[in-house]
Write a structure and sequence with these properties.
The structure is a single chain. By secondary structure, this protein is mainly α. The chain is built from five helices and no strands.
Length: 77
């Protein structure tokens, strides 16, 4: 059951994860569409993750880290 209201640190962490994902994607010289193809998601989903509209689940985070060539902790730590 989600907390209501959501603690302030949750949206901040979402934004941080999205920013790290975007930076790693750009460093890997990938477009959102190319990254989406590598992890089996569409470009809109990648965009939503990067801009903290949605948060990837653990399985997606593992695939994303592998696709951009970084350890998982670089995305979430």
């Amino acid at each position: 059951m989600p907390l209501d209201p959501m603690p302030d640190w949750v949206p901040a962490r979402r934004r941080q994860i999205g920013e790290r994902l975007r930076a790693a994607r750009l460093h890997a010289d990938l477009t959102q569409e190319q990254l989406g193809h590598r992890v089996g998601r569409d470009r809109r989903t990648i965009h939503r993750w990067e801009y903290a509209q949605r948060i990837p689940d653990l399985e997606d985070l593992l695939l994303l880290a592998d696709a951009v060539g970084v350890p998982l902790r670089d995305l979430v730590d």
